Amino acid sequence: MNERTLNILTVIVLALALIAGILILAVFINPLAGINPFPPEPTPAILLLPTATATYLQLPPTWTATALPEHLVETPTLRPSSTPIPTMTKYLFSSRTPTPTDTSTPTNTPTVTNTPKPKPTNTKTLTLTPTNTMVPTDTITP
Description:
Elements: H1 3-29
């Protein structure tokens, strides 16, 4: 195939993809459209059945305390009390800096305890000594 034929086929495929996209969008927006191969089932009519009115069980009324009107409530009148007469009070602000005082400092006293000392144990030590050590030289010997 030559290049021109492939370009024409590409344009045809793109046009068909655009048409398919438009058809899918139309079905998505309106499912009852004539181009929809699987339309939804029609909605059934609303079924109205005669029903009795529900009568709910009710609790018996209860007594709730209510406030009495103000003219029925007795408010005791308070007797006057003696209130001291206000007087000028002199305030003395201290400008003195507090000085440090001598205090005893607690010290730690060491406590003597009887600590047992470990007993010496016999241990064997293996010491390796190098033998036949090779020393590098500058010359090669055959």
